[in-house]
Amino acid sequence: LIDDSATYDLPHPSGVIFKLRYWTFGMQEEVDKRCVVQDGKGGVSYDVSLERQIKIQRTIDNWSGVKIPDGNGGFQEAPCTQENKNRLPVGIVFWLVKNIDEMAGIKMPEPEKKN
User: Which residues in the chain show pLDDT less than 70?
Assistant: First the structure.
């Protein structure tokens, strides 16, 4: 079983280190309930964009190395807030979600796919 407060570090190639919570079955159930939406034609669809947003909000516990302009021509460490999580570049978000899914066993890591 996973302790809800347990975290792990995920280093990005840029040097940023994300401290993430483990993705659990309960989290996935919550996401599935929120992301399955009626399509208005008697069917359903899955809101993948909302799933990504929830995963980012729920798993990122902290980070180091994320910089924002300081207003004086330099940069300062960006606080790990809900607002700043929403401002992460889309490529970083996709990379994070891929790694979150792999750590949770939802998707197979690329090296394992080749074997």
Answer: 108-115
